[in-house]
Write a structure and sequence with these properties.
The protein is an all-beta fold and 319 residues long. It is elongated, with a radius of gyration of 24 Å. The strands form 3 sheets. Strands 5, 6, 7, 8, 9, 12, 13, 14 and 15 form a 9-stranded antiparallel β-sheet that branches. It has a 4-stranded mixed β-sheet with strand order 1-2-3-4, with no helix packed on it. A hairpin with a 2-residue loop joins β3 and β4. The protein is built from 1 helix and 15 strands.
């Protein structure tokens, strides 16, 4: 193919509304290149350039900083228990936070904490990476004995917990940018046949969206290189003949089942929430040092490393 050389010092494209079309190809198709070459890497859909030491992402910046992708999922809220009769709600999913191009400095300690799932009628724990905090899932409402107006409502959180099967009881609210509200419950005229507790909210939709008492669906991330759904809401409790009410996709527990570990799924009615997870993806030219209080694993995906934290709390640093 012929090469067209531009000899002018200035190319003015300010009057155009389109964009430049770069050379592109996979990581394996990288040319040896010379310093100053620019291409689109189709393996990770990022622009990269060649300098004297090799190919680097444009977003990578100088040798003293890293641009990372980060996913932070909090622990899911616990489902409600049934202290008087039936009709507990499902737990809300843990908050879902994803950041691309998150700036990290070398030789700096960053706090990492993986939230635990909530016990019955308890909020899930927050998960943290540096300045990113995902809020624990809201607890579910249940049929209380001491203060029904309090216990029958859903708790607020990353996603809100579902309310118990009492008409008019409020569901919990989700945190903006992290999750959705829980669903309200109801008790029809033929109790205990037609009742249902509200489903817990999920990262992509409110509880009850897919049916009465159903947990809200979670949200997908491809940070590990494989699309995976996290932070589904837990299913509420249903009456006789209704059948087991399902949790939302992304680890939400079905009625009577816990949220899935390391998804931030809300607990189904009468069960506990699932633990959260923290995932960091960064260029493979850097090395992470992980504190002993964290449980983690690191894999390589293309030109990146992916470190996954599944439990604990401590600090990490990069070099």
């Amino acid at each position: 193919m012929a090469t067209n050389k531009v000899t002018t010092n200035v190319i003015d494209m300010s009057g155009n509304t389109g964009g430049l079309v770069w050379a592109k190809g996979t990581t394996a198709e990288r040319p040896s290149g010379v310093a100053g070459d620019v291409r689109l890497n189709t393996s990770d859909s990022r622009l990269e350039y060649k300098d004297n030491s090799g190919w680097k992402r444009f977003s990578q910046g100088s040798s003293s900083a890293i641009q990372a992708d980060v996913l932070v999922i909090a622990g899911g809220g616990g489902g409600g228990y049934e202290g008087v009769s039936t009709g507990a709600g499902g737990g809300g999913a843990g908050g879902f936070l994803e950041s691309t191009g998150f700036g990290l400095n070398l030789s700096t300690n960053y706090t990492v904490s993986v939230g635990s799932g909530g016990a019955l009628t308890a909020q899930g724990d927050n998960s943290v990476f540096s300045t990113l905090t995902a809020i624990g899932g809201g607890r579910a409402g249940y049929r209380g004995t001491n203060d029904p107006a309090l216990f029958e409502t859903g708790g607020n959180g990353g996603s809100g917990g579902g309310a118990a099967s009492i008409a008019g009881r409020a569901a919990g609210t989700g945190t903006a940018g992290q999750g959705f509200n829980g669903g309200t419950g109801d008790q029809g005229g033929n109790f205990p046949v037609t009742y249902y507790g509200g489903g817990g909210g999920g990262a992509s939709e409110a509880g009850n969206t897919n049916g009465n008492g159903h947990g809200g669906d979670g949200k997908s991330s491809s940070i590990t290189g494989v699309a995976t759904t996290y932070a589904g809401g837990g299913g509420g409790a249903g009456g006789t003949g209704i059948g087991t009410l399902p949790g939302g996709s992304g680890g939400g527990g079905n009625e009577g089942s816990a949220g899935t570990a390391n998804t931030g799924g809300g607990g189904g009615a009468r069960s506990t929430g699932g633990s959260g997870i923290v995932i960091v993806r960064y260029p493979n030219t850097f090395t992470i040092t992980v504190g002993s209080g964290l449980t983690s694993s690191t894999t390589t995906v293309g030109s990146d490393k992916v470190t996954t934290f599944t439990a604990g709390s401590d600090t990490v640093s990069f070099s």
